[in-house]
Write a structure and sequence with these properties.
The chain is an all-alpha fold. It has one helix and no strands.
Length: 54
């Protein structure tokens, strides 16, 4: 039937990677931003409490 190539073409792979990165950022971007903001705030609060206790 259809002849099968051993490897995918380079432009096809690059296109798939770009689509994956863009969709991944759209799906996981906002929750990850919220997570890192909370994490940094917690670390800053922990450093302040350590500095105040000394």
């Amino acid at each position: 039937m259809w002849g099968r190539r051993k490897f995918l073409s380079f432009p096809l792979v690059i296109g798939a990677v770009v689509i994956g990165v863009v969709s991944g950022k759209a799906i996981f971007g906002p929750p990850l931003d919220d997570y890192w903001k909370k994490k940094l705030e917690e670390e800053a609060a922990a450093k302040e409490s350590d500095a105040n206790s000394n």
